[in-house]
Amino acid sequence: MKKAIKILSVMMLVVFTALSFSSCSKDDDPVNNEFFAGTYKGSVSYNDGGSTNISTDNGSVFVTKIASGTKYNFAFSNSIPDLNGIEFNQEGDHTLVMIGSTATSYIRIDNNTLKILFAKDGKTWTANCTR
């Protein structure tokens, strides 16, 4: 009996893992999914106001929705520091806009594009990416 339960548990774990990976296609909408993870590719940059200035046209940003349901994390390529816990509001049917967006600091995301111009403590992150 213990062996059957163990086998069943392993099978359920495998099915759950397969569903988790298959549910994150390029057609997934970051607005309407409880779980979202997607990679956006394009130009990314970072400037810390001092000696660090990183810029590339072949970068990427891995976006994940965290448990709160309104906050997202942004993991940049090219040794650019991550942005974590950014809170969003839904705008329209399929677009998220960062809470507190201004003309000089915003993050906008949908299922196809990611646009970032984010400034904090003299540091600036930018991204113009698609998936």
Automatic annotation (TrEMBL):
Protein name (record): Lipocalin-like domain-containing protein
Instruction: Look up keyword Signal and say if it applies.
Output: yes
Signal sequence: where?
1-27
Which species is this record about? Chryseobacterium panacisoli
Q: Which keywords does UniProt give here?
A: Signal
Q: Is Signal found in the keyword set? A: yes
Report which superkingdom the organism of origin falls in: Bacteria
